[in-house]
Amino acid sequence: LTVLALEPKVHADVRRVLGDVARALHLPRPQDAADRLWREIDAGVQAAAQSLPPRARGARVYFEVSRGPYAAGTASFIGETLARLGAENVVGAELGPFPRLNPEFVVRANPGVIMVGNRSMQPMVMYPGWQGIAAVRDKRVCVFGPGESDVVVRPGPRMPEAARIMARCLAETAR
Fold first, then answer.
1. Which of 98, 96, 128, 134 is nearest to 114 (CA)?
2. Which pTM does this prediction carry?
């Protein structure tokens, strides 16, 4: 058995991993197949970005990948997707792709939109002090259920669908 251990963290990693999988599957012209799929993914993410109304661009977003809180930083594939959607991630690249944060960090960052990947179906519980965050106060919080969460927190061929889910949140919360 051929075993691959793959952990893409950014868009470039996803593109590289597509080639690795195509080679492992012994596809004819594996790099061409991987490049073709990457172009489809990239075009889908771009289409999601172009679908956003202008008022949805520039939102300051905090994306919680899982309780802890573990966030999607600017240096993650989620952060890259948010940037392509015209959003500003409040978790900078210097913190790494998926840092565990002190909830106070989010209070200080005061994002305008909060996105939560909730694969466990636990009800969202606010951390202390979060009631004062603009996104919470103005009800601009998108909690993705297990199905959507599974799409948005896993890099791969469903990235265009993830971008559409995030774009829908940004459009619905735009003021």
1. 134
2. 0.92
